[in-house]
Amino acid sequence: MKVQPDQVDRILIFDTTLRDGEQSPGATLNVAEKLTIAKQLARLGVDVIEAGFPFASPGDFEAVQQIADVVGTEDGPVICGLARATRQDIERAAAALKPAAHKRIHTFIATSDIHLKHKLKKTRSEVLAIASDMVALAKTFTDDVEFSPEDAGRSDPEFLYEMLENAIASGATTVNIPDTVGYITPSEFGALIAGIKANVPNIDQAVISVHGHNDLGLAVASFLEAVKNGARQLECTINGIGERAGNAALEELVMAMHVRRQYYNPFLGREPESEAPLTNIDTQQIYKTSRLVSSLTGMLVQPNKAIVGSNAFAHESGIHQDGVLKNRLTYEIMDAQSIGLVDNQIVLGKHSGRNAFRTRLREIGFELSEQDLNRAFLRFKDLADKKKEISDWDIEAIVKDETQSQ
Ligand code: KIV
Ligand code: ZN
Fold first, then answer.
1. Which helix (H) or strand (E) holds 315?
2. Ligand 2 centre distance from Cα of residue 405 (Å)
3. Ligand index nearest the alpha carbon of residue 155
């Protein structure tokens, strides 16, 4: 499923759970686990899987190679390997990616003065020449080459434009703009993409991609501004895992565009009402993918995490529960089933009302008379004062107790 810059009519989803996501402290995955996740990412419908950094370790090489072999089929996603802008890294990535039907080498070098001075100890003209040579080298292994000017968010825009023009002229088909340290604000990210479109003469020959970290909790909002200004590939991870505060979360980006598609459609040149999907993601696979990544990485999802947290579709207050039972639209902006959850969860606790209690009783198979219901409800309220959440077992015990004591 090769992607050409002029064929992008949707927002491409580049998943980096297995590369940047795995850089989360403590989230190491073995080869078999990476392969399992890659298969699920393919079912989810991501366009590109960044499978790892082959030069980093023999394990990463093997994982990228196996994913390229098993998941990188003719109608499967593009399989990508990361490489610094060095000959050894690029050759190693090319070797690992060899079995994939569609392969991408993603090479990067920093462009911010802070990185040039303190990390690379190189001048601007030196990094321009390195980027040119290494993009050209990557191009000898595959047509599909992505270039990232690391720390673009803190780079001088004029130098960034020059670097991107240079990378595209050397063969890059995707130029990725990373906010490596999660520093810039959403409106600044939007303006940066608009500036790139206006000032890089050959920009139409490449897909503009964005990559960002969540140090200030702004990554998803920044990406959405970037989309409005011309970004057509989003680099993200499942559950937002990644270096430090993590990367932009795939599920949040996809569902924001899905739920508000009338708002985003015009930025893709469509009628607001268009029902055509904005991404290739099968949203019904989102919850399952989130659970898989959480259990294999051991990184728990916070309960109040948007979209996939255990409370994301749960309603605790009596007023909200009553509203949702009458009509879900009262307190839900999306259907739990759209991310593959079986149903929303009414959490029964001390704030729950009779209506919620009766509905749960029906769901677990009890139809009580008004009289029995009143008595059981009083017992339930009593228990709820002592216990934070009331389980189905508690309810069953109350009902049996009440009905047998007659
Ligand atoms: O955050 C970053 O800059 C990266 C690059 C390698 C794209 O992960
Ligand atoms: Zn990153």
1. strand 314-315
2. 62
3. 1
